[in-house]
Amino acid sequence: MTVRGRGAAVGAVLAPAAGPERVATSAAGPAPVTTPRTVGPLRTVHPAAIAANVRRVTARGHDLVAVVKADGYGHGAAVVGRTALAAGAVALGTATLAEALTLRAAGIDARVLCWLHLPGADFAAAARDRIEVAVGDEDTLAAVSAAGRRTRTAVVVHLHIDTGMAREGAEPHRWQGLLDAAAAAERAGEVVVRAVMGHVPNADRPSAARAATLLRLAGLAADLTLGHPVDLHLGGTPAAFAGADLTGIAVRVGAALVGIGPSDADLVPAMTVTAPVVAVRSVRAGTPVGYDGTWTTPRDAALAVLPVGYADGVPRAASGSARVRLREGLVPVVGRINMDQVVLDVTGVPGPPVVPGEVATLIGPADAAGSAGQPGAGAAVAVPAVTAVPASAGAPTAADWAAWAGTNAHEIVTGLGGRIARTVDTTNSRSTA
Predict the structure, then answer these.
(1) One of 4, 266, 279, 291 is an active-site residue; which one?
(2) Per-residue H/E/C for the chain
(3) Can you give the residue range of the structural domain that contains 387?
């Protein structure tokens, strides 16, 4: 069964339970508000948007290693990975070996690279499941080589050089020593060096150009030492969009796959987050709301409660600034964001009174006029009649929440908690051209 609106045909999780829907109307006769009975907090992932974002990266001439770490930036690693591969990515990337093995368990047989190794990492498992491994120091190389000997399988490695991050990868003055050790391990049949990798530290063209220059020099040294050519790849969405000359260099991109990146990259947000109203009350002017009464109603007001809070990834730091979309416009979050609940001021929302079961959109694509964080956005937006899952045009984006909370959009989407159910939009109704 499907539910009408933007989120139609997104799976059984949206289907109402047996029994009639509740329809609220007013005597004046505005359009009815149809609300389901069993919709909880929900994040809907849009593969069509992910595919469009992949094409925006590859259209710039880059081979793409699609990074699906942190459960695909909160969108589901397997969904993002399969979609990216189908849209043209040449391989997948994860932070940890455990994340890479999860992709194998999900039935993904494509090339997978991991680069953040915990102490005692089971590189034998990497060998058995054909997981490619980043190596940035001789100790890690020794552990990977030992796993290759034990399993009698040459582990595919990518030698990692520090191109300005000062966190992982070999320092330039240690690079030749790592190359010499890797060449010896190759001759012993314990590893096969496939590539040299780095990471762009800043989101600007000079930073990407410097990283690319260092990577090319490191790759040339690797070619000479190993006696065969290696691939080159740089990490970070800025690597793909900074405008530096990356001829012959692939890019590792994760955030851009789900719509996070430079404002001029024309990326498409790949997730809509909704939550139902669970309670509505009318209060008098001067009523304090929430812990410590940080907001007091300036007039008689209607307040609505959503069953999400900072335990679900709604950042407490956004208290006093955030807004969500309800029906045709944006309404403010008032008082402190709690662990499990937020309160909305729904006074003056057009149409009949807001009722429990109506669905608010916390995260969705911005409208043509701009994001929800900009003055005037959300006003006079043409949307269909309000239904169980409202249209999300003009809804706040992850970037809006990041601005309200003083963080980045990456933290918003990866911080969504397990109580927000996840489903996949199986339609192609979203505009991704």
Answers:
(1) 291
(2) CCCCECCCCCCHHHCCCCCCCEEECCCCCCCCEEECCCCCCEEEECHHHHHHHHHHHHCCCCCEEEECHHHHHCCCHHHHHHHHHHHCCCEEEECCHHHHHHHHHCCCCCCEEECCCCCCCCHHHHHHCCEEEEECCHHHHHHHHHHHHHHCCCEEEEEEECCCCCCCCECHHHHHHHHHHHHHHHHCCCEEEEEEEEECCCCCHHHHHHHHHHHHHHHHHHHHHHCCCCEEEEECHHHHHCCCCCCCCEEEECHHHHCCCCHHHCCCCCEEEEEECCEEEEECCCCEECHHHCEECCCCEEEEEECCCHHHCCCHHHCCCCEEEECCEEEEEECCCCCCCEEEECCCCCCCCCCCCCEEEEECCCECCECCCCCCCCCCCCCCCCCCECCCCCCCCHHHHHHHHCCCHHHHHHCCCCCCEEEECCCCCCCCC
(3) 12-45+269-424
